[in-house]
C-alpha cells in the first residue's frame, strides 16, 4: 500500500516537480534541445521546437540502446533504432542540418546520464561511431528521396492517395524507407496506397525466394556434374 503506480513515468514526474507544462521543458530534455539550437542556429520555437524535441528524444534513446548492445539494423529492435535515427535526421533537415550532427549531441547525454548508465562511458566510441556511420549512410539517399517524393506529391491535393507503386519505387530503387515516405505523406495530409505497396513487396519477396531456390538447385547440379 506504500506505492501507487500512476503510470506517469520519470519524465512526467519531472514535469510536475519542476512545474513545467511539457516534459521537454524539464532539465531532462532541455540541455539537449539547447545544444541542438546552438548547433543549428535556430530558436526553440514554432516548427523548430517540434524538430528539436524529436531529435532530443531520439538521440537519448539511440545512445542508451546502443550502449546496451543494440545496433541499428534491418530487423527486430535494431530496425526500431534505425527508424528512430532516420526520423531524427529527417527532422534535422528541417533545421537545415546538411552534415551529420547527431553524434555531436552525445556529450550532453553522457554528461547527464553516465552516472546512471556507466556504459555510456565504456561504450562511448562505439556509440559515436555507430550513430555517425548510420547517419552518413542515410544522408546519401535522403536528398534524392525527398526530391523524388516532392515531384510525385506536387500534383496531389490534401486527402489524395499517394500511389503505392511510387512508394515501392522509392524504397526498392532508391533505398528510401517506407516509414519515412509515410511520414512525409502524412505531413502533406496524403494517404499511401499501402495495399498496393504490400502486394509489390510480396512479389519481390517471392522472386527473391525463387531466385535463391534456383541458385541452390544450380549449385547442387554443379556438384553432381563434378
Overview of the molecule:
The chain has 226 residues and is mainly alpha-helical. The protein contains ten helices and two strands. Strands 1-2 form a two-stranded parallel sheet. Helix 2 (30-40) packs across helix 3, helix 3 runs antiparallel to helix 4 and helix 3 packs across helix 7 (124-153). The termini are far apart. The mean pLDDT is 89.
What is the distance, rounded to the nearest whole angstrom, between the alpha carbons of the first and last residues? 76 Å
The total of beta strands comes to 2
Morphology call: globular
Determine Rg (CA atoms, Å): 22 Å
Short description:
With 226 residues, the protein is mainly alpha-helical.
Q: Helices and strands in order, then pairings?
A:
Elements: H1 9-17, H2 30-40, H3 46-67, H4 76-94, H5 106-113, H6 119-122, H7 124-153, E1 161-162, H8 164-174, H9 178-187, E2 191-192, H10 194-225
Parallel strand pairs: 1-2
Task: Give descriptors for this structure.
226 residues; mainly alpha; two-stranded parallel ribbon; 10 helices; 2 strands; 2% strand; globular
Amino acid at each position: 500500500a506504500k506505492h501507487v503506480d500512476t503510470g506517469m513515468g520519470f519524465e512526467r514526474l519531472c514535469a510536475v516537480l519542476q512545474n513545467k507544462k511539457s516534459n521537454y521543458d524539464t532539465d531532462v530534455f532541455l540541455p539537449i534541445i539547447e545544444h541542438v539550437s546552438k548547433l543549428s542556429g535556430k530558436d526553440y520555437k514554432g516548427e523548430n521546437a517540434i524538430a528539436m524535441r524529436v531529435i532530443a528524444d531520439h538521440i537519448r534513446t539511440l545512445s542508451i540502446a546502443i550502449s546496451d548492445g543494440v545496433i541499428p539494423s534491418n530487423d527486430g529492435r535494431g530496425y526500431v533504432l534505425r527508424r528512430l535515427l532516420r526520423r531524427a535526421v529527417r527532422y534535422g533537415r528541417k533545421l537545415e542540418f546538411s552534415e551529420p550532427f547527431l553524434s555531436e549531441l552525445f556529450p550532453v547525454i553522457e554528461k547527464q546520464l553516465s552516472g546512471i548508465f556507466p556504459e555510456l562511458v565504456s561504450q562511448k566510441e562505439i556509440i559515436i561511431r555507430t550513430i555517425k556511420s548510420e547517419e552518413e549512410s542515410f544522408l546519401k539517399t535522403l536528398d534524392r528521396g525527398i526530391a523524388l517524393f516532392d515531384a510525385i506529391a506536387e500534383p496531389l491535393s490534401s486527402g489524395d492517395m499517394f500511389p503505392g507503386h511510387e512508394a515501392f519505387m522509392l524504397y526498392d530503387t532508391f533505398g528510401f524507407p517506407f516509414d519515412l515516405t509515410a511520414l512525409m505523406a502524412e505531413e502533406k495530409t496524403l494517404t499511401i496506397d499501402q495495399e498496393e505497396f504490400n502486394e509489390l513487396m510480396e512479389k519481390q519477396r517471392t522472386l527473391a525466394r525463387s531466385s535463391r531456390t534456383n541458385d541452390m538447385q544450380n549449385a547442387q547440379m554443379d556438384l553432381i556434374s563434378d
